[in-house]
Amino acid sequence: MKDTATKVSPILSVRGLSKTFAGKPVVRNLSFDLHPGQVMALVGENGAGKSTTKNMICGLLEPTDGEIQLDGETFARVDPSAHGIAAVHQELSLFQTLTVAENMSIHHLPGSPVRVDWAAADRIAREQLDFLGMGIDPQVEVATLGAGKQQIVEIGKALLQANRVLILDEPTTSLTAIEREKLFAILDRLKERGLAIIFISHFMEEIYRVCDSYVVLRDGEQVGAGKLAEASRKSLEAMMVGRSIGEARLELTDPQERLALRVEGLCSADFHNVNFTVAAGEILGIAGLMGAGRTELAEAIFGLRPATGKVVVGEEEIRAPSVAAMKRRGACYVPEDRRLNGLFLNRPVRENLSAAAIGRFVTRKLRSIGFRGEVKSAAKIVDDMNIAVPHIENAVGDLSGGNQQKVLLGRWLATRPRLIVFDEPTKGVDIGAKFDIHNTISELARDGVGVVMVSSDLPELLNTAHRIVVMRKGRLVGQFHRDEFDAARIISLAASAGKPADV
Amino acid sequence: MLNIVLRTLRTNPAVPLVAALVVVFSLLSPFFMTGGNIEAMMGANAVVLIAAVGMTFVFLAGGIDLSISTVISASAVISGLVMAGTDNIAVGIATALAVGAAFGAVNGLLIGMCGLTPFITTMGTQLVARGIAFVMSQGVAVKGTPYALMDFGFAAFLGIPATTIVGLAVVVLASLTLCGTSWGRELMLVGSNRNAARYTGINVRKMEFSVYLVSGLLGGLAGFISIANLGNAIPGVGDTLLLMIIGAVVLGGTSMNGGEGSISRTLIGVGLLAVLINGLNLLGIPFYDQLIVQGVLIFVGTWMAARLSRRRA
Prior knowledge:
The complex is a heterodimer.
Chain A: H1 2-7, E1 12-21, E2 24-34, E3 39-43, H2 50-57, E4 65-70, E5 73-75, H3 80-83, E6 85-88, H4 100-104, H5 118-132, H6 147-161, E7 165-169, H7 177-192, E8 196-200, H8 204-210, E9 213-218, E10 221-227, H9 233-241, E11 259-267, E12 274-279, E13 283-288, H10 294-301, E14 308-313, E15 316-317, H11 323-328, E16 331-334, H12 338-342, H13 349-354, H14 374-384, H15 401-413, E17 419-423, H16 431-446, E18 450-454, H17 458-464, E19 467-472, E20 475-481, H18 487-495
Helix pairs in contact in A: 5-6, 9-18
Chain B: H1 2-11, H2 15-28, H3 35-43, H4 46-60, H5 68-86, H6 89-113, H7 118-137, H8 147-154, E1 156-157, E2 160-161, H9 162-180, H10 182-192, H11 194-199, H12 204-230, H13 242-252, H14 263-282, H15 287-310
Helix pairs in contact in B: 2-14, 4-9, 4-12, 4-13, 4-14, 5-6, 5-7, 5-12, 6-7, 6-12, 8-12, 9-10, 10-12, 13-14, 13-15
């Protein structure tokens, strides 16, 4: 099967594909062939350019350079419906209040514009679902289906459009083991139909189970490609991580004896029985894949999500955690999505910097009503953190990503915390700001602050952390000290489907 | 110099409109700039000014209080009935504030604690308050309120009506609260980004509760002032005021999306509508024609506000 597939001409050929965002190359010079009945794995770390590649091939993004050939015909930009290409994206994108049939035919409703032929839509959906072999009633509302069945509906919807290439982005993260096997069986049938599939996944077992060939991306560059049968799992992981790791490590000081944070038996819907400690002056990295429950864990510690278990800050157990209660004990949380959960975009930099500690500046005197010392404090933070802003009265929304992140960081540093939990502290910031933020974090640790750092950027954790714990599917599955950091082992632990090891 | 002018324009986009209207009406009507007319113009808008300050707080926090208009009516009627029985102005003030606070607390509980949407919730309390005002007054003006209160309604100092002085005092106090207390700052932050406020440790629900409480209180005060202005407690006094109140706040340049605006802008916005309505009356423009002009002005004003605030930074 595999051998015959390579002899026919490719269904999709990509030559020198590149994408640049605001002068910054995200994908460079990508080239590969995809034959009918072939499943190609597209692998790489978070931020390696997989999503951008996917979006160029399914027509969401226009490539900056390079060409895409479909059955020998060259196109500058793909028109997904005309070219028979469809992608199932990682985030489910179904309309929860519509039925399965309505969702599946939403891109191309049968009938005339004034009168939709719902019976036909129903029939089309039923045929497709029958082929997929899942017992899903096209008449039910999508919201009543579990995540696994919704994923199948997504695939069914994509297949109505895709008769050449189907792209699956992390299709198994929300599936149970049984549902996953069913999905793999479906993929086998689609291969027999002559469809070409691009399979994006972090899970190596899955890749070896379903894929024939691979392309490895690192920092937007194609660092490896070939037949999967000829590449070992170790070599693939080494290609993903590259040799850049281990260079330019930060100098860290030893942590103190005193504990800054102790988490015992923390449980919620997203994670189970999580235990860990952070010493004063220690930087603890939490590694894991998207959806492993890391953000949920961090938010639960601060009472932003419900959870049961014990959270101890310093010596004191926090009975009812909340951001305000943690703040009073000198603990703070810097969230991942700064635009959604962090910053007050239309308010000035000054107000954003003082937001967590405004009470400190209130004066009781009527003569000088206002916030005494707020301007001075804001100016000092801007100075200390090296924030590039014309004036502290400028709206935060006008700053660059890196400077916005520094403002968010500065706000919490102004509370003089003893414990900081960061969620993706350098996501979407430029190299210079990243460097500044890493230095700030290591200085905090030197001053005896306990630091927890959730990050999907493994080199970042390897560079800045004293210790890394690995989280997978809601459980802590491993721990590494700085002298035994091993990128390949951490990745394989985070992505393996095996039994969790003891911590 | 140019900078100061530009900054004033940015923070108070309605100022040039007010200035233009004053010039036009002064030219068209010899009565416009007389002391008597100015006094009448101010007195007629004290109630709207006080209520608009309450609405400004709610807007800044990202909500809306549609009930404020009929809370004015309900608190006027109940306060009027109490004063007719006791002839005591202090008890009357306390009653009006208590009624306003009660409605505000109901709004605050439903929106802040139960998570209902502000629009629907306050529409409900608007109807309830209106119903109460008409049921308790049996649909007619409540008579027998103290004469001293009517005297207060007619009093003026240096050509400024006493009721307007109360309104201006509310403006000053509200402005200081907004700009000088942590409550005011946190209110602004909740309106700017509710999620971020939660992640910053601000008690968003308590904030929402308190802002509707304040809005209710100011509605109660406005209701009491309406008795001084009109001499009676009228059950329908607030019915027509809602669009005036919202219009004044929006024209002043406070955003309905929250986190952008100020009390001083609302003062200008009330002034703008006051000048417009007074001027059109002086020119003998019929009431319904005035509505068309008011509507067009709201488009122009909000468009200008949007243009000017976009040219920030």
